[in-house]
Amino acid sequence: MKKFMNFRIGNRGVFLLIFAALFNTVSAQESKTSNAPFLTPTEAVAKMDIPDGFDVTIFAAEPDIEEPIAFCFDDRGRMWVVENTNYINRRTHNTGDISRIKILEDTDGDGVFDKKKIFMDDITFSSGIAVGFGGVYLGSPPNLSFIPDADGDDVPDVPAQVLLDGWGINDRHETLNSFIWGPDGWLYGCHGVFTHSNVGKPGASDEDRQFIDAGIWRYHPTKHEFEIFARGLSNPWGFDFNDFGHGFATCCVIPHLFHVSQGGVYHKQARAHVNPYVYDDIKTIRDHTHKSAHGGARFYLADTFPAKYRDRLFMCNIHQHEVLTDIMNRSGSGYIGSHGDDFLPINDLAWVGFSVEIGPEGGVYILDWHDTDICGNAINFPNSGRVYRILPEDAPKIAQPNLRELSDLELVEMQKHSNDWYVRHARTILQERAAAGELDKRSVHEKIVQQFFDAPNSGKRLRMIWAAWVTNYFGGADGESRLHYLLDYEDEYCRSWAIQLLGEDRSFTANTLMKFKQMAENDSSSVVRLYLASVLQRMEFDDRWPILEALASREEDREDANIPRMLWFALEPMVPGNADRALELAINSGATNLQEFAPRRMLETEVTVKPDVNGLVEKVAPGFRYNDRTPVELLESFRNEVALKMQAGGRFSRSRLIRNVSIPSAKTTTLKLRTSYHLHGDWKMRVVVGRKVLLEQEVSHKTVQDEWLDSEVDLTEYAGTMVEIVLENATNGSDNQFGYWGNVELVSE
Q1: CB count, 10 Å around CB of 398?
Q2: pLDDT band at 633 (very low <50, low <70, confident <90, very high)
Q3: Which residue, among 646, 649, 678, has the nearest Cα to 744 in the 3D structure?
Q4: Nearest residue to 292 (alpha-carbon basis) of 373, 213, 375, 349
Q5: Euclidean distance between CA atoms 516 and 502, whole angstroms
Q6: Are 312 and 15 in contact (CB under 8 A)?
Q7: Average pLDDT of every residue of the chain
Q8: Nearest 5°: phi and psi at 59?
């Protein structure tokens, strides 16, 4: 039975629009959440500030779904929801087989489900789901499993088949998540920094496994191969591809937005990079700030919303309790991400939106974990959870799709659809049929080629290339020549994707290598040159040199945000065995980063250089020195600011910054402190002068109102004397004892 109505409450005031336009930094109050009242779904929608012309419906809510952690659509437009009732907090969970996968269907298109099935009710802790290839892909650490349902009767054919194991669960919020089918036919997903996984096929040795602690991974459904697509980031819980097949991730704690290329190494929230010789990782593309926790990522590639929203990235901001949009603008080989709008302020402190999907009717669907503890350290509202649909008021209802009933040629025709929901699902079915030998490849490929030449723009042409790829048009004896044709095509995005596809199997013919070298020397597109820099890492060392030398000599890429770093990632592993040639390449190239990093890498082959700890301290706490042995790290962006990260440890379970200073006489002297905490744990800040404790302050979600805690200590009583000031990061009973110092200064007036 449908229990809820559509709601449209509240228009945005002109004042708010003007206020937002005045500021590039997007701000909203991050309030305490522990005392937020429980709102029913109807009450929650009534508080939303819904934009003019839109409706929000409650697609599903408790008790029909409980603790929803992931969702997706199948090719019939039905929603599959994974419940995680095993969840207790970030450090522990109930180990019983008590969680479920549910199938929800909205048969009349009013934005509220009216038909429900339970696909499985005996799964344990799970975090990601995708449907395709005759079954369900389920992330349930330590396993990535496949649950066959070949006849599509919504009943598992056999027990779950483990495809990969070794997925960690150190942090229940940071294991494998956010599954999405890529345009190249791989299943992509995210992984967080505080969970350590060593992934491989069941029974694989350690040597045959791949370690991941932060990044984007992918798994191929028919070749059964696993790869790390990119490393770094924080706890990404959102990944999607734009109109050109370029990947983008949304993150927590660190800057929120990244353009992700194959083989890239990106700004990492914590812990050293897996490769210690990265030296300079790729940075955020944002030009603005939000509060520091984001979840979900979907580009709006449909036509139901007003035209201005097409190509915008929709995401949830957990701390601002809003649905936001960002706009991607080309810049060099990549993008600058600018703020679109605060699309949907929720006005409910218990709203925890961390997944987004686009539906077949063009609606935006938001999954709300729903709890007052927005960081997952406790369950205060057990057995709750909602999915909302956002849709224009005047959107027409559609007939419920069933793409599996379409013929091969009808699925190819779907590659032209204005809503990418149809494009993506139809492409997956074409891939599945091709892998099963059930596709009329001749007629399919003829139609794909014709649609390629008829396509009006790059996005439509690329969809034909991707459909051709997953149906093996580029395989066999003619495959290389067909991709070489694209290498000469006028469209830079077609050329770049041909490069990536030629590198898929890590095998390159002499003709391909020669063509890549020519493109490295002459191609006018920075996007093409980025793809060339990316594919280098998939080559044998001897094959890399000519292409790398040509790319490194391109002066127009010196200041590019991606290419110089990608070239170093390709060159670095070759330096130890080819020091002279690497140094010669670096010197002759004129690339300043290669000229710095190559000799540094040569030295560090034998010698490990320790960081200047007090030099790091000086950047946030001038005059102070570090007085302990536990690690210290300077973070370029923690909650949108530079921060010194310290760890309580040692004999007295604390770490300290110390300064001996003379307090001026006849002046008022104040010690000003700016501190913060990580979602994983609280800490205790202490200020000690002599043996007197002047301040003892918990730094946690209970005390920090707006991401950072500003504190002041009056030192005037010590005027005219020399004192020792000790700043302590002390334990507070949590597992994570990291303290974050943003700014420490003495002010005398």
Answers
A1: 14
A2: confident
A3: 646
A4: 375
A5: 10
A6: no
A7: 91
A8: -65, -45
Please enumerate in sequence order all residues whose Cβ is within 8 A of that of 450, keeping only pairs 6 or more positions apart, or say none.
none
DSSP 3-state helix, strand, coil percentages of the chain (rounded to 5)? 25, 30, 45
Q: Positive or negative CA dihedral for 275, 280, 284, 290? A: positive
Q: Report DSSP state, residue 706.
A: B
Average pLDDT over residues 285-314: 95
Place of tokens 């010789």: 277
Q: What is the pLDDT of residue 308?
A: 97
Give which of 185, 186, 226, 222 is closest to 204, Cα–Cα: 226
Looking at residue 25, its pLDDT comes to 40
CA distances, 36 to each of 31, 63, 67, 372, 604 (Å): 10, 20, 18, 6, 53
Packing angle, helices 510-522 and 526-535, rounded to 10: 140
Question: In the structure encoding, which two tokens stand for residue 218, read together?
Answer: 């992918």
pLDDT per residue over 264-298, tens digit each?
Answer: 999 999 889 999 999 999 999 999 998 879 999 99
Q: What is the DSSP string of 125-144?
A: S--EEEE-SSEEEEEETTEE
pLDDT, mean of residues 38-64: 97
Backbone torsions φ then ψ of 292, nearest 5 degrees? -90, 15
- Cross-strand pairs, 265: 231
Exposed, middle or buried, 98 (CB in 10 Å: 0-12/13-18/19+)?
Answer: middle
Q: Is the pLDDT of residue 115 over 80?
A: yes
Give the residue from 537, 557, 479 showing the smallest Cα distance to 511: 479
Q: Hey, which bits of 554-682 come out as E strands?
A: 625-626, 632-638, 641-647, 654-662, 669-676
Gyration radius from the chain CA atoms: 27
User: Partners of 68 in the beta sheet?
Assistant: 83
pLDDT tens digits along 122-151: 999 999 999 999 999 999 999 999 999 999
**Predicted structure pTM score:** 0.87
Q: Residue 328: beta bridge partners?
A: 337
Query: Do residues 41 and 367 lie in contact, with contact meaning Cβ atoms separated by under 8 Å?
Result: no
Phi, psi values for residue 119, rounded to 5°: -75, -45
Q: What is the pLDDT of residue 611?
A: 66
